[in-house]
Amino acid sequence: MKAVVVYATITGNNEDVADIVTDALEAQGVEVDENEMTMADVADFENADICVICPYTYDEGALPDEGLDFYDDLKEADLSGKVYGVAGSGDTAYADDFCVAVDEFGKAFDEAGATKGAENVHINLAPDEDNIKTLDQFVADLVKKAQ
Ligand SMILES: Cc1cc2nc3c(=O)[nH]c(=O)nc-3n(C[C@H](O)[C@H](O)[C@H](O)COP(=O)(O)O)c2cc1C
User: Fold this and answer.
1) How confident is the model at residue 6 (pLDDT cuts 50, 70, 90)?
2) Angle between helices 68-76 and 100-111 in degrees, nearest 10
3) What is the pLDDT of residue 69?
4) pLDDT tens across 44-62, in order?
5) Per-residue pLDDT tens digits for 80-133
6) Cβ neighbours of residue 65 under 8 Å, at least 6 residues apart?
7) In which element (H, E) is residue 145 found?
8) Are 92 and 115 contacting, i.e. CB atoms less than 8 angstroms apart?
């Protein structure tokens, strides 16, 4: 089984989230390709069984600036038959705008026809021990769905 994990980060929290997801996938025997969003292409998902995005949220619910093209390409892609998950870090101080980008990327995967394999994960700032447990369950759900 193969997975592609794509993250967007400014201060490193979402790279940490992506690393945790990658480690958990590899622990389940999944072959993983992990890339920063500007180095990734939506077409990379076509070679994967499991597709994961870990995005930050900025400026009152905005998507990562450097990820806008990726987001547009994702909505236009055909990822039917692929299992997807979105897990990202934001800041609860932004209240209603907390982790909006996570849910927006989830909707883009839906538009691409991918199958949701796990509930979206919203993490406050740097991932802690509880978040790691949540991400382990997120990965277990994705793998189960892709089997
Ligand atoms: C100017 C600014 C705007 C932000 N806006 C939001 C927001 O609307 N929603 C949110 O959940 N987090 C917001 N954040 C918090 C970041 O998403 C959060 O710090 C996140 O962990 C950063 O991820 P990164 O370390 O991968 O860059 C904002 C941070 C900054 C500096």
Assistant:
1) very high
2) 30
3) 98
4) 999 999 999 999 999 999 9
5) 999 999 999 999 999 999 999 999 999 999 999 999 999 999 999 999 999 999
6) 58
7) helix 129-146
8) no
| Separation of alpha carbons 103 and 55, rounded Å | 10
Which of 44, 54, 134 lies closest to 82, judged by CA? 44
The one-character DSSP state at 114 is P
The token pair at 48 is 């994967």
In 37-146, at which residue ranges do the beta strands (DSSP E only) sit? 50-54, 83-90, 115-116, 121-124
Q: Whole-prediction pTM value?
A: 0.99
Please name every residue paired with 4 in a beta bridge, in sequence order, or none if there are none.
Answer: 33, 51
| The pLDDT of residue 126 | 98
Please check whether residue 94 is in contact with residue 127, taking contact to mean a CB–CB distance below 8 angstroms: no
Q: How far is the CA of 89 from the centre of ligand 1 (A)?
A: 8
Distance in Å, CA 58 to ligand 1 centroid = 5
d(CA 88, CA 53): 8
Question: Which ligand 1 atom sits nearest the alpha carbon of residue 16?
Answer: 26
The protein residue with its alpha carbon nearest to ligand 1, atom 16, reads 90
